[in-house]
Amino acid sequence: MSEELLFLDRAAVLECAAEVDPCEVVGDVLRQHAEGAVTMPAEGYLPWTNDTGAYCRSLAMLGAVEGPGRPPVRGVKLINAATSNPALGRERAAGVGVLFDHHTARPLVIAEAGWLSAARTAAYTMVSLRHLGPPEWDALAVVGCGTLARVHLELLVRSFPGAKAVHLHDRDPARAADLAEWTGRHCPGLQAHIADSARAAVQAASVVVTTTTTDTGYLPAAWLRPGTFVAHVSLADLLPDAFLTAEALYVDDLTLVADNPRRVMGALIRDGRLAAPAPAGRAGGGAGSGERDRAPAREITGTLGQVLTGRVPAVRPGTGHVISNPFGMAVLDVALLDAVHAVAARRGIGRRLRLY
């Protein structure tokens, strides 16, 4: 008996994705997550340094959506990155996603995952902005002008046609100029302005999106004007005081965030300065009497999925700022790949690969 699977390269993924609403897919899975219908085993993480001294890493993340009323979806995302790639003309991250057959557990489809990962991330930002962003806004700031920023702008003009301006900044001015030129061609209704500093970009808009690769914080609360929503998409842009003074603070998955001290929020949780929301009817993050003297400065408000299901309030920025800080749930990639695969199967897109 032979074994085959379907292969979707980026062109095929993009062709199929044109018929998929990534925000709808992401929102549905976040609701399933809040209802406990999502499984996410521990992430596999392998770091190393290449021969140029650049940081490299490999992430292997399994996920399943197994809620009632829908066929189960199971798969894995393998995504690797090297910080030296952009200087070589390559995207920083690349990888593959795989779906598993429910009955045989065999690999069913394998697809290019770099664009899917960026689209999933951008869709999460759009859903959070829709429910947690300022009541009125027409300009945003994007700090970090690589592939992830580009996909954000692609989805932004579809999700928020009223957006009029984007303020761009990158440590490499050429990257900001390239994205501004691309925006003019592909998002003609969005006026691109290049800021000469991250601070200038951030202070020019009430919606801030960070899509950098930095592992060193630089963005304090003082830069954020009243009424600002921050999508802290990347690793470490915000300084601790921005989290500790936020009007509300939302994540995608509390366990993922708490278990990763490499990220700012994980470190703040480890140090006792942030805590998960207290159980209903009990304040103080669940601290016992012996812990009251070192209670955290604030609690995380909740998850975006809890907002979508009405379990926690949706707080929009008022006199301060609101932060959305997703860790990155691979199950969203798996679900998005499932939606793309459904289009591919219906339209006969992709190539069959014979395993044996």
Task: Explain what the structure shows.
By secondary structure, this protein is of the alpha/beta class. 31% of the residues lie in helices and 25% in strands. β6 and β7 form a beta hairpin. α1 crosses α11. The longest helix has 19 residues. The chain is globular and about 65 Å long.
List keywords for this structure.
single chain; eight-stranded mixed sheet; 18 strands; 31% helix; 356 residues
Describe the SSE topology.
Layout: E1 4-8, H1 10-17, H2 22-34, E2 38-39, E3 44-49, E4 55-65, E5 73-82, E6 93-100, E7 107-112, H3 114-132, E8 139-143, H4 147-159, E9 165-169, H5 173-186, E10 191-194, H6 198-202, E11 207-210, E12 228-232, H7 240-244, E13 248-251, H8 254-258, H9 264-270, E14 274-275, E15 298-299, E16 302-303, H10 304-308, E17 321-324, H11 330-347, E18 351-354
Parallel strand pairs: 1-7, 8-9, 8-11, 9-10, 11-12, 12-17, 13-16, 13-17, 14-15
Antiparallel strand pairs: 1-18, 2-4, 3-4, 4-5, 5-6, 6-7
Quick structural overview:
The protein has 356 residues and is α/β, with parallel strands linked by helices. 31% of the residues lie in helices and 25% in strands. Strands 1, 2, 3, 4, 5, 6, 7 and 18 form an eight-stranded mixed β-sheet that branches. An eight-stranded parallel β-sheet has the order 10-9-8-11-12-17-13-16. A two-stranded parallel ribbon has the order 14-15.
